[in-house]
Amino acid sequence: MASDPILTCPRCKQTDQVQKVTRVYDANTEEWSEEELGMDVFGHIEDRQVQHEAHTKLGLKLKSPEEPTPPRHPGLWYGIGIFIAIIVLSGLCPVIVVPPAIVIPIVLSNSSSLPQVFRGQNGTILTVVIGAAILIGGLIVLGLLVWMGYRIKRRFNRDMANYRDKQEAYERDQLRPYQRAKERWEQLYYCRRDDIVFIPAENKAVPIEDMEKYLHDPYYKF
Ligand SMILES: [Zn+2]
Fold first, then answer.
1. What is the rounded distance in angstroms from the CA atom of residue 62 to the CA atom of residue 26?
2. Exposed e or buried b for every residue in 160-172, given b needs 16+ CB within 10 A?
3. What is the distance between the alpha carbons of residues 148 and 160, in angstroms, rounded to a whole number?
4. In angstroms, what is the span from residue 3 Cα to ligand 1's centroid?
5. Ligand 1 centre from 201 Cα, in Å?
6. How many CB atoms lie within 10 A of CB 25?
7. Rounded to two decimals, what is the model's pTM?
C-alpha cells in the first residue's frame, strides 16, 4: 500500500493525524450486495441483487458528493417504433385493401345464394358499390393512420426538444458542478485531531460539516 505524502494540517500544524479523505472514507464504509425477492412492474416475483452501503459516522460525514440523476429520455425507441409501425401500416394499407375491394364483390355477386334481384346487371352495380365501399373504408383507415403518425411524430419532436433543453441544463447546472466537486473531494485530506478537511494547495482548514459547501465553492467563507 502506497503511503500518503506527509502533509501538515493547516490548523494544528502537525502531520501525525492527517490522512487522505478517500482512504478514511473507504476504511469507514462497507459495501455489499444481497439477493432479495422483489416484484417487477408486471407483478412477477423475481430475484434481484440489491446494493447496500453502510458508513460509520465519520464515513458518512466524509461521503463524496452524490452523482445527480440525469433527466429521463422521452422513450426514444418507443416513439420511433410506433412511428415506423404506422408508416409500414400506411404503406401496406393500399396493398391489403385494394384486392379485397375487387375480389369480395365479384365473389359475392357470383354467389348462387344471392337473391335473383342482384344478378345480371344489378349484380355488376352491386360489385361496384361494395368495391367502392371497401376502398373508401380503406382510404379512411389509411388517412387516420397517416394522421396518427403525424400527431405522434409532432409530439415526439416536441418531447425531444424539451429533453435536449433539460439535458443541457442538467449538464451545465448539475453534472459539471458535481464533477468539479468530486475532483476536489479526491484531493481532500482529513485531520483527525481537529476534525477538519483541507486541500493542500488551498491550505484552508474547513470544518468537516462544511465539506460539501467547500467542495462546490473554494471561496466559501466558514
Ligand atoms: Zn490538525
1. 10
2. eeebeeeeeeeee
3. 18
4. 18
5. 16
6. 22
7. 0.65
What's the 20 CA to ligand 1 centre distance in angstroms? 13
Q: What's the gap in Å between 67 CA and the centre of ligand 1?
A: 30
Of the candidates 184, 194, 202, the one whose C-alpha atom is nearest the C-alpha of residue 13 is 194
Dist CA 7 CA 23 (whole Å)? 15
Question: Closest Cα to residue 138, out of 88, 101, 191?
Answer: 101
How close is the Cα of 66 to the center of ligand 1, in Å? Answer: 27
Q: Angle at CA 24, nearest 5°, toward 14 and 4? A: 55
Three-point CA angle 174, 29, 16, nearest 5°: 100
Spans of all domains in the chain: 76-165
pLDDT digits 0-9 by tens, 66-117 = 999 999 887 766 667 777 777 777 666 666 666 777 777 777 666 666 666 6
CA distance 69 to 207: 28
211 CA distance to ligand 1 middle (Å): 15
